């Protein structure tokens, strides 16, 4: 029975996931920059913002930059160099992650995040004008595509992004399952 659900999910995503042409173009531009840098290409989802308060309410540990990097190193100890794309909403955490991947993975760092000085806070996002919410959602779709198409992806199970990206990697881009690293595993 579980295999049937996986196949249904795969077929559903293959039918449903077709970003608009302008989003495909935006994704292609980001991927072109990413892929022109040295391989391997590793995408990290670095979540901050309201996630830490949510984790506290749920009485679970938050995934920190050191967990992301340690999890990748544990699963792929021989992967060094290349390029790390850091995608997130908290510039302080992106800075910490950049320092760690440079130190431990010796990679070139590219970053994508929301505007400087801000973090994703759902209540604030909900109050933004429609144009700003749409622009942020478009950016999210591009980020999902970049993470899904990278050679490796590192994310936390305490964020729904891991499930979304893992599903896209598997169903749409046919990436091997072990190239998706779940950082929260080091927390258990």
List the helices and strands and how they pair.
Elements lengths: L1 H15 L4 H16 L4 E6 L4 H7 L7 H11 L7 E6 L2 H15 L2 E6 L8 H5 L3 H20 L2 E4 L4 H12 L8 E3 L6
Parallel strand pairs: 1-2, 1-4, 2-3, 4-5
Helix pairs in contact: 1-8, 2-7, 4-5, 7-8
What is the domain tally?
1
- Counting helices, strands and paired strands, the structural category is alpha/beta
* Head-to-tail CA distance between termini: 28 Å
Which spans of ≥5 residues are poorly predicted at pLDDT below 50?
none
**Spatial strand order of the main sheet:** 3-2-1-4-5
What is the makeup of the main sheet?
5 strands, parallel
The backbone outline, from C-alpha atoms, is globular
Number of discrete helical segments: 8
CATH architecture: 3-Layer(aba) Sandwich
Secondary-structure element string: HHEHHEHEHHEHE
Radius of gyration: 16 Å
Strand composition percent? 5-15%
Could you report the average pLDDT, rounded to the nearest whole number? 86
- How much helix is in the residues? 40-55%
What name does the CATH topology carry?
A: Rossmann fold
Reading off the top of the CATH hierarchy, the class is best stated as Alpha Beta
Number of strands: 5
């Amino acid at each position: 029975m579980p295999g049937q659900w996986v196949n249904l999910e795969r077929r559903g995503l293959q039918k449903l996931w077709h970003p608009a042409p302008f989003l495909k173009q935006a994704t292609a531009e980001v991927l072109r920059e990413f892929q022109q840098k040295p391989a391997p290409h590793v995408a990290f989802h670095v979540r901050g913002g309201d996630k830490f308060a949510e984790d506290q309410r749920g009485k679970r540990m938050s995934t920190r930059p050191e967990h992301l990097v340690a999890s990748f190193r544990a699963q792929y100890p021989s992967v060094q160099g290349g390029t790390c794309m850091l995608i997130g909403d908290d510039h302080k955490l992106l800075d910490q992650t950049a320092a760690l991947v440079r130190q431990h993975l010796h990679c070139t760092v590219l970053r994508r995040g929301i505007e400087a000085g801000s973090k994703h806070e759902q209540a604030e996002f909900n109050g933004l004008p429609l144009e700003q919410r749409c622009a942020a959602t478009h950016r999210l779709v591009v980020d999902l595509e970049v993470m899904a198409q990278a050679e490796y992806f590192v994310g936390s199970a305490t964020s729904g992004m891991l499930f979304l990206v893992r599903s896209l990697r598997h169903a749409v881009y046919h990436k091997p399952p072990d190239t998706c690293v779940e950082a929260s595993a080091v927390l258990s």
